[in-house]
Amino acid sequence: MITISTKINPESISQAAKIIREGGLVAFPTETVYGLGANALDSEAVRKIYEAKGRPSDNPLILHVSSFEQASELVYMNNVAEKLIAKFWPGPLTLVLPAKEIVPLSTRGGLETAAIRMPDNPVAQALIKASGVPIAAPSANISGRPSPTDFESVYNDMNGRVNMILDGGKVDVGIESTVIDVTNPEKILMLRPGGMPRELIENVLDAKLYFPDETSKKRSPGTRYKHYAPNIPVVIWRKSKNFPEINNAAYMGVHDVDCNCAGKIIFPDINSYAHGLFAGFREFEAKNFACIIVEWPEGDSGVSEGLRDRISRAAGEK
Question: What's residue 299's pLDDT?
Fold first, then answer.
């Protein structure tokens, strides 16, 4: 039976932590999206995550920690990682580093590396601390679906699949963390753009991030060809092209357009676009529109790169 906590307090956190320690699943908010959490050091609990999501077992999970010391127990640190942690943790930045033996192969998708981050959300932090273990947590949705950014989306996908949902309201960022590979301090790889802008990382490192090859890319979740997709087609519109005329289509973007669209969401800026993308996908698919036309985000700063990544994967474009 699922337990739903709409009041976050010490009692609900303690109950959720007990479920984590006993090998159960808890959906909880982070600053990026809601996570589906289990004890990262318990192979059987991790297996339940893959089953609940319908997720391929070779897709690694991110380990969520509450302190640098806890992270150091899981991976082999280096100077670059420590520099980034000092600047950006807690926050939407995931680091990939060589894993220590304490991390089960199932948690890291059979790889020699592990992905770790410290979420910037008081509910997530409290849950990790109360559990006393790192929490492995992909997004709390059916694999391939739009990531959940509010309680309702989690409930719709995970009811009957998890032991407890902590309702922390809407998240702050709306797309997942940026994932970078720092296993080689001389060549830092951007595995997945996300909530931490590339330029902020490069400014701290005083170096450019490299693009990964196909082998390196597998060290990060969320890098498969089709991902984050609603149950209706996503059509990308670039401002340099004619707007597609499709009957019963919905549209979302930062620029209003004169179109015959059956539904519209116009965001005031790029951050709002990222924050509302997945919720917009779910809202429009529930109304049975023929498709969702999405504006291609322009610009190279902020969350634009991460937003483009999510849109291209939702549309099935490389």
Answer: 85
Task: Output the six-digit token pair for 41.
Answer: 């050091």
The closest of 257, 225, 220, 222 to 238, measured between CA atoms, is: 257
Q: Which of 28, 30, 31 is nearest to 20 (CA)?
A: 28
ω before 56 within 30° of 0 (cis)? no
Q: Decide: helix, strand or coil at residue 24.
A: coil
The answer to whether 74 and 103 have CB atoms below 8 angstroms apart is yes
Distance CA 141, CA 154 (A): 6
Beta carbons within 8 Å of 81's beta carbon, 6+ residues apart: 75, 95, 97, 182
Q: Is the separation of the CB atoms in 210 and 260 below 8 Å?
A: no
Radius of gyration over every alpha carbon of the chain, rounded to an integer in angstroms: 19
Distance CA 3, CA 9 (A): 14
pLDDT tens for residues 84-132? Answer: 999 999 999 999 999 999 999 999 999 999 999 999 999 999 999 999 9
pLDDT of residue 218: 79
